[in-house]
């Protein structure tokens, strides 16, 4: 055999031997505890475990029953995969990076929750448990460690390319749980406390359910295809919620909204009964900004709300659309609504028109309004005047929900007849019903300012006029106390009414000067802009 042929044969034998040796060593490395111990150097911070793993080709790994669990001072999380095949790029291990791609997996579950010191009972019930960590997720005791610098940064990064995840069964972040069946394709990069990137990715839902943990479903039968990208986020400067400002989402979905559960979550003190509502939506969001073409519809659905003295029931339908970047409009139509306050009732049709655009940190709602039109009476007990109507408009309104509700609104109201409002006032004041019945409230007009903060709600400078009455009103609700003052001028008679610390009084002499003083006192204790 010529020398070069012998050399080639020896080289081939060495290559095959090296290949077999490497494959054997790799299977020993991943099939025993060696790899798990290497990457799970601190199981309290990062744990990687699996039931079975092997490799038939160097770098190409099959794993079953994979669990990756981790936490830092801010969050705890766990990723579970039933089966996964991936190409591991071992060079990344030398820079503390788990880099795999392409990745094909089946049966995925992801749970993530924030760590904090204060937890409500409802939060504990709805927040995702993370196996291996105690509930609730409390922060680590002791002083905060100094922040990691680039010089001493030693946390593991995860880079996944060309991911195909079939049968994604659960994504549970804090109290929001998405469960069911979905296919996800795309890429993902995460460097703890440093950087996050997602996509381009697609989410194919068929179908999914969104709930308040496992406590109550909010939306079910979610079907559709979404394209999602989260541009690189510097996690040192951005809170978790700020990720939404880097997210782009496009696609169409259909779903069924469980309106009773949604309304109960928004207003826990009110009793709701409601039918489910069909929902359709087209989503076009570019780096956190909704773009024209985005719209959603819900309904029709029946609803009944009962807060004790007041109850409302009827059929609702809602639609919202984006007209321009940061500018939307929405309409809520109510048909054959029956409102009952004690022994009085009003039956109306309703339309709520919302116009909103961003003004700095505030949402500008100027031009929004609500209108009521008397519907056909179906009962002799209905108090709806014939052809009755009422319109209210926000001539200037700013809303901010950062850190709680903040509202400043100038409101103008007109009504053909204010008798339904007058009857509501009489039911909650010491004014005699015969006095209100004797006064005409036709041609009713009023203007005023409404302010809200996380701890208080105030109505100030409320000036109302009608055919037979002038009135002024001031109101402040700062839990647990409610104070208000009302001045009524009937021409031949004027009176003042107040409620302070739950005690109501009527003032007949010097009512106007008395009201001005009480309104000034209420304003001094009210919401300060």
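^ structure tokens above, recovered residues below v
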């Amino acid at each position: 055999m010529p020398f070069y042929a012998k050399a080639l044969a020896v080289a081939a034998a060495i290559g095959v031997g090296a290949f077999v040796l490497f494959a054997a060593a790799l299977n020993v490395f991943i099939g025993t505890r060696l790899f798990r111990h290497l990457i799970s150097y601190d199981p309290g911070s990062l744990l990687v475990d699996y039931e079975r793993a092997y490799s038939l080709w160097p770098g190409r790994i099959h794993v079953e029953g994979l669990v990756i669990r981790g936490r830092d001072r801010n969050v705890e999380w766990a990723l579970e995969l039933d089966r996964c095949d991936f190409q591991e790029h071992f060079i990344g291990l030398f820079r503390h990076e788990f880099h795999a791609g392409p990745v094909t997996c089946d049966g995925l579950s992801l749970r993530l929750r924030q760590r904090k010191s204060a937890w409500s009972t409802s939060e504990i019930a709805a927040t995702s448990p993370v196996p291996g960590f105690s509930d609730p997720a409390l922060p680590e005791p002791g002083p905060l460690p100094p922040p990691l610098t680039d010089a001493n940064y030693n946390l593991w990064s995860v880079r996944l390319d060309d991911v195909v995840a079939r049968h994604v069964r659960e994504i549970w972040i804090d109290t929001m749980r998405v469960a069911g069946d979905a296919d996800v394709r795309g890429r993902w990069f995460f460097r703890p406390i440093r950087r996050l990137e997602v996509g381009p990715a697609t989410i194919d839902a068929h179908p999914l359910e969104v709930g308040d943990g496992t406590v109550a479903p909010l939306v079910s039968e979610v079907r559709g295809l979404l394209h999602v990208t989260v541009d690189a986020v510097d996690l040192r400067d951005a809170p978790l919620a700020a990720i939404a400002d880097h997210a782009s989402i496009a696609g169409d979905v259909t779903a069924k909204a469980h309106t009773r559960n949604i309304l109960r979550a928004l207003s826990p003190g009110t009793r709701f009964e409601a039918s489910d509502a069909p929902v359709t939506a087209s989503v076009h969001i570019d780096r956190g900004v909704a773009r024209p073409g985005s719209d959603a519809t819900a309904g029709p659905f029946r609803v009944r709300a009962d807060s004790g003295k007041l109850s409302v029931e009827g059929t609702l339908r809602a639609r919202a659309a984006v007209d321009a970047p940061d500018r939307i409009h929405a309409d809520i139509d109510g048909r054959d609504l029956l409102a009952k306050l004690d022994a009085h009732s009003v039956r109306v049709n309703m339309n709520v028109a919302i116009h909103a655009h961003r003004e700095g940190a505030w949402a500008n709602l100027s031009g929004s309004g609500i209108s009521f039109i008397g519907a056909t009476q179906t009962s002799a007990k209905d108090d709806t005047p014939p052809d009755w109507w009422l319109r209210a408009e926000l001539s200037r309104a700013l809303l901010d929900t950062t850190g709680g509700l903040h509202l400043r609104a100038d409101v103008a109201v007109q009504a053909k007849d204010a008798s339904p409002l007058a009857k509501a006032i009489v039911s909650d004041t010491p004014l005699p019903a015969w006095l209100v019945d004797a006064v005409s409230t036709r041609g009713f007009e009023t203007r005023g300012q409404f302010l809200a903060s996380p701890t208080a709600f105030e109505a100030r400078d409320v000036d109302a006029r009608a055919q037979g009455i002038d009135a002024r009103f001031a109101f402040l609700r700062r839990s647990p106390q409610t104070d208000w003052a009302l001045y009524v001028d009937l021409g031949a008679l004027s009176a003042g009414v107040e409620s302070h610390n739950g005690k109501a009084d009527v003032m007949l002499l010097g009512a106007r000067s008395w009201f001005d003083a009480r309104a000034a006192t209420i304003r001094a204790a009210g919401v300060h802009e």
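Residues 33-138+155-237 form one domain.
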